[in-house]
Design a protein that fits this description.
Elements lengths: L2 H21 L3 E6 L15 E6 L2 H4 L9
Antiparallel strand pairs: 1-2
Length: 68
């Protein structure tokens, strides 16, 4: 196998793992609106959407190196 094929297979594996983790997460969406400086009225034409992950430990996996 050449290096390009190995890299392609690794990328597919990593992407598959990432997508599976995303599907199993519980997410909440928060929408914020900036305000106008003088009136402090919300500018509803420019929403800012934030996605919050409820349990980040399920998403982030730290693989410890094997020192043996």
């Amino acid at each position: 196998m050449d290096n390009a094929k190995v890299v392609e297979i690794l990328n597919q594996t990593v992407m598959t793992d990432y997508m599976q983790r995303l599907l199993n997460l519980k997410l909440d969406k928060l929408t914020l609106f900036p305000v106008f400086p003088i009136t402090a009225a919300p500018n509803v034409s420019e929403p800012r959407h934030l996605i919050m992950i409820e349990d980040i430990k399920k998403f982030v996996v730290v693989k410890k190196p094997d020192l043996n």
